[in-house]
Amino acid sequence: MSTDFFIGVSLVIFGTIMGAIGAFCLKIGGAKIQKKTDFFDVKKVYILLIGVSLYGLSAIIFTFALQFAELSILYPFASLSYIWATFFSIIFLHEKINRKRWVGIGFIMLGVITLSFAA
To answer: Nearest-CA neighbor of 14 among 60, 50, 69, 46?
Structure first.
């Protein structure tokens, strides 16, 4: 495995973390909107703007990462955003994760690990 591969994977992992934080911000911001007029109240939607910005940053990082490795290798790593989002929701939103979700997360991790060794 080359240095370019590790750079590409590292960028994608960083991008998935930014995307998951963006999703978290959208969740928090969406909860603050109670009526249509709230959407135009910057005090209430600033967190939504942060979330959208982080999603955009995630896409830019992913695009940059594609310079270092093949899409077929890097794209499966994007599924890590599901794992980060789950952990953020457990830690900060105190959501409960049932056994089926944990099994799904395990399969995602197994898939990412398998693909990283296949590269």
So the answer is: 60
